[in-house]
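Table S7 (text form). Paired inputs.
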Amino acid sequence: MINEALQFTCDTLDQFLRNRFGLDESKVIKNTLIDSNGSIPVVNQNKIVISLINVEKETTKPFNVRNHQLSNGSYANVNPAERFNLDVLISANFDDYSETLKFLNAVILFFQVNAVLSANSSSSIPKGLNKLEFDIEKLNYQEMNNLWSAMGAKYQPSVIYKMRLITIQGFEADGFVGAVSVMDNQVTQ
């Protein structure tokens, strides 16, 4: 689900930018900022780059359901779904600094308008995703510097969003329970 959520976000943001600026080519990619050899990927040039920088397990448990009904009416015991929040770095990597700022502004506008992406707002949301919620993350100068240094990259104008509640469910049954088919309503005195 992580890849699907990131790709859906990438595609939706790209379509927004294409419509906004009348573009024929894609301007948003999902990629790392630095290759394993320490160089900047060529495909990042003149693009908005979406990079996963952290995965955090959601610790609230209101979705802790173990029994899932099967088509025959019985129930399967499965481990509860795990939900995660993803921190994504969205950086503008353009040769022209004015283009960098123009596209970064449009990215912020996109997430301001689309704080939630769901089946109600997009028919192309991948199966298994109900909705994605986006909150801007506030990092101070030192934290941002530490992040870019840890990635081994030179700073580029960027913004970080927390993508909330990516659900991962394996549906591997560890037991089965039969359904109740008859109830005895007899009252004894």
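Next pair, protein 2 of 2.
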Amino acid sequence: MPLRILIVDDSVADVEATAALLRDEGHTVLLTYGSNKCPQIALNEHPDIILMELVIPDVSGFQGTRETGRREATAHIPVIVVSRKDEEMDWVWAMKQEASA
């Protein structure tokens, strides 16, 4: 089943590579290069899932995840953390911010 997937990351290369793979599988891909726009895009575009980088210069992925997860209209959208950060505390904190995985 094709999904609408929102990718949130500040790395153009990472976003384009991930988007290409997902499009090849038949999914619709929405992109934003900063997490500050994530809650509004989620509200307007109704993605089925969000792939969120944690380390983003404008607003951290933690904040974008929290704002998306706490809005009634977008709380049902799973936020999957996709990050180069690999510290256990970062993952614990992401889950506390409403991340799904």
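The longest strand covers residues 4-8.
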